[in-house]
Every structure is written in structure tokens, then in C-alpha cells.
Specification:
The protein is built from 11 helices and 18 strands. It is an alpha/beta fold and 336 residues long.
Length: 336
């Protein structure tokens, strides 16, 4: 079968590999669509600590059950989306119902072959049925939508709050959409990409161009001097770390979503004297994943705006090149 594989730093290639076979407790899924995300790019650049070449990447994917082996509520032909996290089931977080922060968490597409292929084998308990109202292309966004659902749930956001989102990539925009569903009033989104800022504006957010504007001054001006209730940091650089502290109100909350490549400097003194809360978020629980699918099927969030490209698997290399051009791309899907 065809598979898009990480071969070495800065190199992905289309390979012809053996179609996987399954054992009891697994399903074979014929992949429909798979999204390229920031973690895939980290693997691509050779900077992921666990991913080892050759690896079929892809942890955001949907498809159809081809074969299934074991007790289940599914059948061949069911449309599904895959929750890619795999906990050990034994550590304290897993035992307390928080397997998404398992001490040895593994992911399909990172620690084992994933969805940039015609077929993939997955544990049955990682499958979710795709509602009839949802296309398989849109369903491939369930994983990043689940990240947004979990992120907003971990925040103190309440109806009427002002929100600032520093970073207008797919996760940042999805956080904005989920925050809006939860009653956020004004949602400010900053970025340096005019393309992504235009997407933000089309979704009803107040777009701030960080390349030619003082982000803090502009947001506070547009907010009539009111500091922000909840700030989501989704860009992962030092400038946004500085901005998040200057934007937040006294006793407000900052939620850090980014996985920083370098250790940032954080002015704790500024936070200390205003009793600012700092929260981090990793991925999502199974409940968050189910909630994401329900929200997506309801039509309450604009999923097509998040998808900028759909490419055939033969164009896997083009997909990774596009992801390095934020002025041209947002969410790139690889389809079969």
C-alpha cells in the first residue's frame, strides 16, 4: 500500500509498504483523510524526541472500518475517526481517569504508524463513529477540535469574557470558535500571517497583525482599555510570552497551549503582584474527543474555513512544504 513516511530530517516520501494485518482487539481502517499538524512538522524537522524513521506519520485521521477483530459495537463499513492517544492504564493519571496525561503516553502516528497511508491498524477502543451529518474530510479535524474543547474547558472562561488568542494557526482559530460557543464576547487573535488573519476575521474575530502593530497596545485600544479575562498562548515564542502577561487582567488566567521548542523567560514578578493564574494544557480526554465530534456534527463551528488544502497522498511532500508557508496554508489534509 501507499504510505507517506518520515525518512530523515526535512524529508518525507511516498513509500510502498506492506498492508498491516490486525490481531484481536484491533481494527483495520481504510483511511479517508489525514491532517498535517504542528507535531508532524516537529517530526519532519527531526526534532521530536520519540519519533523514529522510517515512520508513517499522521494522528489526525478519519476512515472506514475494513476489518475488525474482537468484541465491539462497530462493523465493517462504519465511518470512524480515531482518537490517537494510548495510555499505559497503570500509572496514577491513568488510574484516576486522566489517561491523556499518562506518564508514558503514546500516540498513533508518532510512536507507531499512523494515518498517512491507505490503511492503518488501531485499537478498537480508540474508534469513534462519525455521525451521518459529518463528512469524513471534516471528521479528520476531530483531534484538533478536541484539543480546543479541552483547552477551553481547562480555562475559567465564562459568558461575556474578553479573550485574546496569540497565534492564528488551526488550533488558535478552533479555540476561538469553541470560546465563542461558550459565550466569549470579544475575541482578539494575533498573528504575523495576513492569510491566517483574514481567516480569523472571516470567523468573526478581531484580527491583530503582530508584524506591524504593538499587539498589547492595539488589543487594549480596541477593548477600550479593558484588560483581558483569559489569554490563550498558541504561538510558542518569547514575544507572545511577554504579551500574554501584559494583556491579562488582575487575577485573570493565562492558558499556555504551545509546546515550546526553547525555554521561554517568564516575568513571574509581574504575575505575582496581580495574582495571575497560569494554566497549561496537553491534549484531551476521551470525553473531550466525543464532545468535539458532537459539536462538529451540530454544524455550530465553521470547519471548512480551517481546511486550506486537500491533497492526494501522492503529493505528501507538497503538503509538508505548504505547512512551512503560513501565508498560504492553514490545515492541510492528505486524502486517499
Amino acid at each position: 500500500m501507499k504510505a507517506g513516511q518520515y525518512i530523515s530530517p526535512n524529508r518525507v516520501a511516498l513509500a510502498n509498504i506492506e498492508k498491516p494485518s490486525i490481531v484481536e482487539g484491533e481494527a483495520l481502517v481504510k483511511v479517508s483523510h489525514a491532517g498535517i499538524c504542528g507535531t508532524d512538522m516537529m517530526i519532519y524537522f527531526g526534532k521530536h524526541p520519540r519519533a523514529k524513521a522510517p515512520l508513517t506519520m499522521g494522528h489526525e485521521f478519519s476512515g472506514v472500518i475494513e476489518e475488525i477483530n474482537g468484541a465491539h459495537v462497530f462493523q465493517s463499513g462504519d465511518r470512524v475517526v480515531v482518537e490517537p492517544t494510548i495510555g499505559c492504564g497503570e500509572c496514577e493519571p491513568c488510574q484516576s481517569g486522566n489517561g491523556h496525561v499518562c506518564e508514558s503516553l503514546k500516540l498513533i502516528g508518532i510512536d507507531m504508524d499512523g494515518g498517512f497511508a491507505e490503511y492503518v491498524r488501531v485499537p478498537i477502543d480508540r474508534l469513534h463513529k462519525v455521525p451521518a451529518e459529518l463528512s469524513l474530510a471534516a471528521a479528520a479535524l476531530a483531534e484538533p477540535v478536541a484539543v480546543a474543547v479541552h483547552t477551553v474547558k481547562r480555562s475559567t472562561l465564562k459568558a461575556g469574557d474578553n479573550v485574546a488568542i496569540l497565534g492564528a494557526g488551526p488550533i488558535g482559530l478552533l479555540i476561538g470558535l469553541i470560546a465563542k460557543l461558550n459565550g466569549a464576547k470579544d475575541i482578539f487573535v494575533s498573528d504575523i500571517s495576513p492569510f491566517r488573519l483574514a481567516k480569523a476575521e472571516s470567523l468573526g474575530f478581531k484580527a491583530i497583525n503582530a508584524s506591524n502593530t504593538n499587539v498589547v497596545d492595539e488589543i487594549l485600544y480596541q477593548a477600550n482599555g479593558r484588560l483581558i479575562d483569559v489569554v490563550f498562548e498558541v504561538a510558542g515564542n518569547q514575544s507572545t510570552v511577554d504579551q500574554m502577561i501584559d494583556l491579562i487582567k488582575t487575577q485573570g488566567q493565562i492558558v499556555v497551549v504551545s509546546v515550546f521548542k526553547n525555554k521561554p523567560m517568564i516575568d513571574l514578578a509581574k504575575m505575582h503582584f496581580r495574582e495571575i493564574s497560569l494554566t497549561t494544557t496537553r491534549c484531551y480526554s476521551s470525553d473531550d474527543f466525543s464532545a468535539a465530534i458532537e459539536i462538529m456534527a451540530s454544524g455550530k463551528i465553521d470547519l471548512p474555513s480551517i481546511i486550506s488544502h486537500e491533497l492526494d497522498i501522492d503529493e505528501i511532500e507538497k503538503g509538508f512544504l505548504l505547512m512551512q508557508k503560513p501565508d498560504e496554508s492553514l490545515k492541510v489534509l492528505i486524502k486517499q
